[in-house]
Amino acid sequence: MKFVPILTVLLFGLSACGQTVDGAETVSLTPETQQIVAGNDTPDETSTDQIISAENVPYYMPIFDGWRGEFISFPLGFAPELDYDGHADVRFMPGMFSDGAVDYWSYTFLWWLDADVTFDPARLNSDIEAYFTGLANVVDANGGLQKHQAQAQFTTQTSNAQAFTGQAVVFDGFVAKDKIDLNIQVNEVLCEEYGKKAVFFTLSPQDRNTKLWEELETVRHGFACVKP
Question: N or C: which end of the chain has fewer CB within 10 A?
């Protein structure tokens, strides 16, 4: 399955031309905003370092029929305070951008990072708040910081020090233009072969005990550090 082009809006698979993504209405952004979101400081700046594909990553991460994928390098243009080396690899469920769909705002992504990067609830709170606040500021430029400010709260799972559960209130600047409540699961997978770790974020407004979450987590369960 082919991924959408890298110049689509970062991490959300929205077409720069205002096309539809599997039937969902999308948002057109100016070329300047697209470049900022993609991690370039100026509109005419491009870098081959930004181009990541399924062919040049060492791991395997499944993508299913009807889903969309996206890659982007750190630093993220809308959240430069996330000071990591690596990239994000995203999988969107088909109804991600369809308000009212059962899988609205349901997706999973990994951060491919150095193995020595460590997370705890406080760091996840800060990272997720910076990520979603920055994203809302770019997509909904006239909304204002107070409306866009995300709030997150994570705890460590008692049975696994490398797993965290959390909730976040974020602003959907793409479709609903309103705040939504997300349930979030974070799991770390160490890939010793490369000195890297895959940090999986799974997100949805749906309760964790629903079948939708089982489907979302098949991406993480199907991940392999080494391609088969």
Answer: C
Name the residue among 1, 180, 200 with its Cα closest to residue 96. 180
- How many other C-beta atoms are found inside a 10 Å radius of the C-beta of residue 111? 21
Q: Which residues pair with 178 in a beta bridge?
A: 172
Tokens of 222: 């199907």
Contacts of 23-30 with CB under 8 Å at 24 or more apart are 23/98, 24/95, 24/96, 24/97, 24/98, 24/101, 24/175, 25/97, 25/175, 26/97, 26/174, 27/139, 27/173, 27/174, 29/139
How many angstroms separate the CA atoms of 98 and 140, rounded? 18
Dump pLDDT digits (tens) for 90-132.
999 999 999 899 999 999 999 999 999 999 999 999 999 999 9
pLDDT grade, residue 25 (50/70/90)?
A: very low
